Amino acid sequence: MRILQVDNWQWHRYGALRVSTSRKLYHGLIRQNHQVLEFSDRDLARYEAPLNIKPIGRRRANQRLLETCDNYQPEMILLGHADLIENQTLLDIKQRYPDLRIAYRNVDPLFNPRTIKNIQRRCEVVDSIFVTTGGDALKQFLRPTNTVSFMPNPCDPAVENQDNSRKQDFTWDVLFCGIGKPDDPRVAQVANLKTQLTDLRFGVFGMHGNPPLWGIAYDHALADSKMALNLNRYEGDYLYSSARISQLMGNGILTFLHTASGYQRFFGNSEAVFFSDDAELQEHLRNFHHDDAARKTRASQGRQFYQTEFSGQRIAQFIIETTFNLPYSADYCWQDQVFRP
């Protein structure tokens, strides 16, 4: 199948990247033998804008997308965070190619009102919507002509290429990376953990005066971390996690998750560590820090599960099958989170 993947590919960052869900899905589609072409709306708008005149660049990016579809004639468009692409452009493409299907995915949290607004903007013009949150909250995006589904944050063996469950020596005992503003509850939460667990070496980036990590510096931090915290700004949205979870578990880093996430349905006590409050989290961190055999076993099983069940290849195929309403070729462990009109 010819697939056009329209997203913010961040070419202008010249390799200084940290999170790339689009890249993992791209790899997954190719591994399924699909023909895939990239289209980066923000980069093209920047390149096409004379004298950095943004409205002109935006208009030209939409024109270039129409031109690309005429040249490439995709059978499916996988639309990511391509905010510069107008709905009218997508409607024009569907009018030209009535058999084409458009899938839209969004990995931002629903507790951010902007995320809901961005998804609602696409509801009327796409055939399927995929969100990294599950449950009844997805039903608000249902329309008579679309399907809405949860999707896990994908990992990829070419991206998550470490296996820290096999390692013994680390720079950091506990890693946390997240851009925290002063009112972010994680700022105080992590500071308290550092105060209580003085014998553990904390690598904290994006807060406490430490800049966030990007590109190769982030890869090095992941490779040098024994355990890690997967903390969200708000805990409680069913199955929501930032893409951080794939980078941690996919690399064999023992990962600590809040029970409010609901991820116990996927990971038992043999793949990740769950906590309900900070006291329980402190206890688990101490225990696994001093029991390296238990740490290695659980991190290894978590990595195996994540790399198998939540691979970009598996999720990409799920997106295609859901979008075209095809019988599922595998038993996806989240397929009960598909909502149809």
Largest sheet: 7 strands, mixed
Radius of gyration: 21 Å
* Coarse shape: globular
The total number of structural domains is 2
CATH class of the largest domain: Alpha Beta
The number of distinct β-strands equals 12
The CATH topology annotation of the largest domain reads as Rossmann fold
Contiguous low-pLDDT stretches (5 residues minimum) are: none
The N- and C-terminal alpha carbons lie at a distance of 26 Å
**Average pLDDT number:** 95
Query: By helix and strand content, what is the structural category?
Result: alpha/beta
Instruction: Assign the CATH superfamily of the largest domain.
Output: Glycogen Phosphorylase B
Q: Fraction of residues in helices? A: 25-40%
